[in-house]
Automatic annotation (TrEMBL):
NCBIfam families: PRK13809.1 (NF010382), pyrE (TIGR00336), pyrF (TIGR01740). Substrate binds at D251, K273, S366, Q423, G442, R443. The keyword Membrane does not apply. GO terms for molecular function: orotate phosphoribosyltransferase activity; orotidine-5'-phosphate decarboxylase activity. In the N-terminal section; belongs to the purine/pyrimidine phosphoribosyltransferase family. In the C-terminal section; belongs to the OMP decarboxylase family. SUPFAM superfamilies: PRTase-like, Ribulose-phoshate binding barrel. Keywords: Decarboxylase, Glycosyltransferase, Lyase, Multifunctional enzyme, Pyrimidine biosynthesis, Transferase. Pathway: Pyrimidine metabolism; UMP biosynthesis via de novo pathway; UMP from orotate: step 1/2; Pyrimidine metabolism; UMP biosynthesis via de novo pathway; UMP from orotate: step 2/2. Residues 245-458 form the Orotidine 5'-phosphate decarboxylase domain. This is Uridine 5'-monophosphate synthase.
Length: 472
């Protein structure tokens, strides 16, 4: 086996499945080694050899009912193993995740069946854990993952913490030594990668949850000191004091209507959210009055701008123009689509702003057919994990467990519904159970004839669901 692994390592290097140099990962981090095992599909013999040797890691005395490859690279490998071992396979679709409706797992299986995971590379372990979560929801039992390459960046531990045994053909260190011994790489490269490994261990995963979900079990006041962002701490404290989880979406186009609503709602809400670009008679006096109300009634102001451009443009959009958002909005929303430079751009715009500011990253949207699914969500979480401007995420489901971050969930109405432009609503109770700390309520309140009564109803229902959540 040892000899075979050594030979295979050299072949993988020669077909460019392993490269050394300066690379940037998809979440914007630098790495001196790049592993791309997709290349093996162009080399059928190597492909077969690798799949066969991977399967030898499995203890044949242990019964397995299903095989599941983590999309995409491991899918063909899992298929080959399935055919060779005559064990059926399931595929976990990568795309479907619109509020638990679409079928996620393809193939024929029964709850209680034992399924083994096949993966090419583990870094943080999040891809495996994501698949495992979905398989478990279908009742499948997962106890083992077979992996070609363990990058030794904390992924193994994260997966093993979920009760899954990880067996890998190579660790990055072993691989380096095989290649060094074969004269394929220099000691300098080895040193480089080893230095990198010493500093880049991924943090223990606080993303995908289930049994380990600290956040949902904790009350808001205990979470105050766990927030990295100062404003997030203040929000959590305010939620606790006001016994409110409402972020009111004041999507009104006249300044007077917004101010009138803020006067009524102010004492009962945590955040008043506006879209400044829909206001027809915007002026600086409006901002001053809104600020005064926010101080009088103690709520924060959010501009739901959903910034999404490159850092430089976003920096200008945030601080300049007619609105000068950075000067008055305590909170803003930001898409992660453009990459981590967006955070640097926003920070630059705050150079002369002394007040606390916070960002809610839009990691998952509420609208039908949204493209914020699968890896987009996990990559968005990972990308924003190191930015201390981030107060939380806008999302629909319980996608992170860090108690210092806040889940803001839009699409909330007293009854499950939809509008005719793609908005999808869930009830206060169901969004809180799905992890919401703050619920964005717009037309449920703004369209009500008695707005105060509507606010109080949402406030009560959300708070009762939260009390039930933390007492479980
Ligand atoms: P509604 O009237 O409750 O549907 O208003 C919802 C608000 O939340 C509205 O201002 C949207 O712009 C905002 N929103 C949303 O509905 N869905 C999302 O995924 C995001 C924001 Br992000």
């Amino acid at each position: 086996m040892e000899k075979q692994l050594e030979e295979l390592a050299i072949i993988l290097y020669e077909i460019n499945a392993i490269k050394f140099g300066d690379f940037v990962t998809k979440v914007g981090l630098k790495t001196p080694v790049y592993i791309d095992l997709r290349t093996i599909i162009s080399h059928p013999q190597i492909f077969r050899q690798l799949s066969t040797i991977l399967w030898t890691l499995h203890d044949v005395s242990e019964h397995v009912d299903q095989i599941c490859g983590v999309p995409y690279t491991a899918l063909p490998i899992a298929s080959l193993i399935s055919v060779e071992s005559n064990i059926p396979m399931v595929i976990r679709r990568k795309e479907a995740k619109s509020y638990g409706t679409k079928k996620l797992i393809e193939g024929k299986y029964k709850a209680g069946e034992k399924c083994i995971i096949i993966e090419d590379v583990i870094t943080s372990g999040s891809s495996i854990l994501e698949v495992v979560n979905d398989l478990k929801q279908e009742g499948l039992v997962i106890t083992e993952a077979l992996v070609i390459m363990d990058r030794e960046q904390g992924g193994r531990k994260n997966i093993e913490n979920s009760g899954i045994k990880v067996k890998s053909l190579y660790t990055l260190t072993q691989l380096l030594h095989y290649l060094l011994a074969a004269g394929k790489i220099t000691p300098v490269i080895v040193q480089n990668v080893e230095n990198y490994l010493a500093t880049c261990n991924t943090a223990p995963l606080k993303l995908l949850n289930e049994s380990t979900n600290e956040r949902l079990k904790m009350d808001f006041s205990s979470r105050v000191k766990m927030a990295k962002n100062q404003l997030a701490s203040k929000i959590l404290r305010l939620m606790d004091t006001k016994e409110s989880m409402i972020c009111l979406a004041a999507d009104l186009s006249k300044t007077d209507s917004i101010l009138e609503l803020a006067e009524i709602a102010g004492p009962h809400i945590v955040i008043l959210k506006i879209h400044v670009d829909i206001i027809e008679n915007f002026n600086e006096e409006f901002i001053k009055q809104l600020k005064d109300l926010s101080l009088k009634h103690k709520f924060f102001i959010m501009e739901d701008r959903k910034f999404a451009d490159i850092g430089n443009t976003v920096s200008l959009q945030y601080s300049k123009g007619i609105y000068k958002i950075a000067e008055w909005a305590d909170l803003i929303t930001v898409h992660s689509v453009s990459g981590p430079g967006i955070f640097d751009g926003l920070r630059k715009a705050l150079k002369n702003i002394p007040e606390d500011r916070g960002i809610f990253v839009v990691s998952e949207m509420s609208s039908e057919g949204t493209l914020t699914t699968g890896n987009y969500i996990t990559d968005s979480l990972k990308m924003s994990a190191t930015c201390d401007l981030v107060a939380g995420h806008v999302c629909q489901s319980n996608i992170f467990s860090d108690p210092g971050l806040i889940q803001l969930t839009p699409g909330v109405k007293l009854a499950k519904a939809s509008d005719d432009l793609g908005q999808q609503y869930n009830t206060p109770e169901s969004v809180v159970n799905a992890g919401a700390d703050l619920a964005v309520v717009g037309r449920g309140i703004t369209d009500a004839s008695d707005k105060l009564a509507a606010i109080l109803k949402y406030k009560d229902q959300l708070w009762s669901a939260y009390r039930a959540r933390i007492s479980h």
